[in-house]
Amino acid sequence: MVKERVIVWFRQDLRLHDNEALCEAIRQAKEVIPVYVLDERQIYEKTSFGFAKTGLFRLKFLLESLSDLRKNLNILGSDLIIRIGLTEKILIGLAEQTKASAIFCNRERTDEEVKIQDNLEKLLWQEGRELIYYRGKMLYHTADLPFPVSHTPDVFTQFRKEVERIVPVRKPFPAPSKMFHPLSVQVEPGDLPSLNNLGFEEVDNLKLSGFQGGETAALSRLNEYLWINERILTYKETRNGLLGREFSSRFSPWLAMGCISPKKIYHEIRRFEKERKSNESTYWLIFELLWRDFFRLMGKKYKNKIFHLGGPRELKNIKFKNDFLVFQKWADGETGVPFIDANMKELNQTGFMSNRGRQVVASFLTKELKINWLMGAEYFESYLIDYDVCSNYGNWNYIAGVGSDPREDRIFNVQTQSQKYDAEGSYVKHWLPQLKNLPPEKLIGIHLLSDEELLHYGVDLGNNYPFNIIKNNSFSKKF
User: Fold this and answer.
1) Average confidence (pLDDT) over 409-423
2) Which of 59, 131, 205, 244 has the least C-beta neighbours within 10 A?
3) How far is the C-alpha of 294 from the C-alpha of 18, rounded, in Å?
């Protein structure tokens, strides 16, 4: 039966293409009301260790994405209704005001998001209205997997082997092409707030980070990376780069915000392979999309355990410290270890860090400094422009040794990583200009240099660059 009017609740799916909830709403209802709620809990509340739940850079990226979504809906004769407050209260109010019979949304699976949708569903049922769920985050459709979610293999390699050869990736839903039916009720669209309106300082990190929020920018980046520059052909060789825009696809912020669909990327890569070229690098980007699905399934399987100190393995007697003074030096990029500090400076100034950098700084925090991994995970949650709850906590589980990785003692040696991925020191010197005069080979053992050498290179330990936080300089001899 055709519904008269429904609301589409946009969440982490800020796009028109491959949006199942939107497509079904258009198919099933005469009138569709797109809505996004800036939930004040996400904007203003803190994590358990006191970090902002949504940092400045991600909030800016979100606002840009909402602006782009509104513009694209306007082209189709619709609009994006924007509100600020408690999601459940606002949506139930809009449903009553507009007499919408249902709210369509793409389901989320992690704790805070689940609580909101469960509360909303109860309120709607009391009013005789429905909350109807669809899927919008994953590459694979869970119904197509050869196992139930509760039996997802705990090791990525086993998961990949069981899935990629036998499970097809469904085609993405097309973006709406017809004009929306005009609304027969009056609904004030609401202003898109600025950072200042929300109590934040304005920031322009586009030049530093290279990221512009929104579906339009996401699709442009996909086209540029694949079809214009063909960078995908060297992805496997360059993906561990640190400086610039072209060493990696850098799709992650748009994927995290739902500005682009993983299925869209997958099928575009497959088309590129047919029309241009297929090699190990084109496959390797699909391989990375599989990791996203794996972490999403781990979040579904283990639920809140991914947020616990002992992780999915429920380890006991874990020896991590909650040393805020040491942690703050790591967070501020003031450890006296150039490769660590450069990565943290980039994160703090742009909201982004390479995947390689994330692994190394996480290993350093948990294995060298012995600091509670949850502090690092929450800091990333606050600062990363591409924060995705399952990928973030899944990766921290993995590095901290509490996840499903079969290797018990995963440690990344900082010197080895620095020499391998920043041999000329260009990345470190970019983010730590006070070290610009040091020859690359001197960056590794900066604290072994004599006072005369330090003076010659313009480095004043304790003043323009900190002493090494690990006093005996005893780094692990692995990786």
Assistant:
1) 91
2) 244
3) 20
Helix/strand/coil percentages in the chain, nearest 5: 50, 10, 40
What pLDDT digit, counting tens, does each position of 134-165 carry?
Answer: 998 999 999 999 999 999 999 999 999 999 99
Contacts of 281 (CB under 8 A, 6+ apart): 232, 233, 234, 235, 236, 237
- pTM for the model stands at 0.95
Give the single-character DSSP code of 191.
P
What order of strands is seen across the sheet that includes strand 102-106? Answer: 81-85, 29-39, 3-9, 102-106, 130-134
Q: What are phi and psi of 39, to 5 degrees?
A: -75, 125
Predicted confidence band at 406 (pLDDT cuts at 50, 70, 90)? low
Average pLDDT, the chain: 94
* Residue 62 · residue 257 · CB < 8 Å: yes
Q: What SS3 state is found at 130?
A: strand
Which two three-digit tokens encode residue 412? 């990344």
For residue 338, the surrounding DSSP H or E stretch is helix 338-350
